[in-house]
Amino acid sequence: MRADSDGLTLSRALLRRRYHWHDITGLDMAFGEDLDSDAPRLTMRLRLTTTPAAGRGPLVGVLGLAPGHQLRGTEPRRLADLFTLLAAHGVPLAERDFADRVLAAHGLPPLAPGPDPIDGR
Predict the structure, then answer these.
(1) Gap between the Cα atoms of 89 and 24, Å rounded
(2) CA 25 to CA 16: how far, in whole Å?
(3) How many Å apart are CA 66 and CA 98, to the nearest integer?
(4) What is the Cβ-side half-sphere exposure of residue 92, based on CA atoms within 13 angstroms?
(5) What is the pTM of this model?
């Protein structure tokens, strides 16, 4: 993933896709289990202006979690940097409390209060 003042570029298997900041409406974060191992995980996808309400946006990443969908204590710093970057560009995060816990684990301040990505308040 690369970011600049115009947007994000996601690279997967030699395919690069560019998303402008004004097209990114949120970061969806879904807690679930791996189908093969039942291990808890978090799946993160961009929500775009072109993504249907019931659709799925581009995959940003999948993170293994501790039981009960808790932090393992070894979350990568790049994840904290991602949350900070998206917040700096006004991109709402679906699970702001989780993002704040990741930031705190790296000694970073919590995200500034903002509108709820679900109801806009």
Answers:
(1) 10
(2) 20
(3) 13
(4) 14
(5) 0.83
- Distance separating alpha carbons of residues 18 and 68, to the nearest angstrom: 34
**Angle between helix 96-105 and 77-88 (nearest 10):** 130
Q: How many CA atoms lie within 13 A of 71 on its CB side?
A: 17
Q: Which residue has the tokens 């993170």?
A: 63
More confident call, 75 vs 25: 25
Tokens encoding 37: 């191992």
Q: Among all chains, which residue has been given the structure tokens 């808890």?
A: 40
Is there a contact between 105 and 80 (Cβ–Cβ < 8 Å)? yes
In this prediction, residue 75 carries a pLDDT of: 82
Q: Are strands 2-3 and 7-12 parallel, antiparallel or unpaired?
A: antiparallel
Residues 6+ apart with CB under 8 A from 82: 1, 60
